[in-house]
Amino acid sequence: MLHTSPIKRHITSIILELKTKSKPKRMAIDYYNNLKVTRTLSDEGLKKDYKKLAMKWHPKNNIDNKLAKSKF
Question: Is the residue at 54 inside a domain?
């Protein structure tokens, strides 16, 4: 009969636990919240607000702004 040390058993149990854990599910992206608009906004209003934000964060309009490059 094999005798394993308590440390080795503990490490083995941790490894097994990590292997069997499921990965957390990603949350869905709320595009309305990102655009800061309500869900009842018309299609035309949504297009208008989207274009406004696209122009605001476009890298050509923000040459020195690194945040604008990452957001666009």
Answer: yes
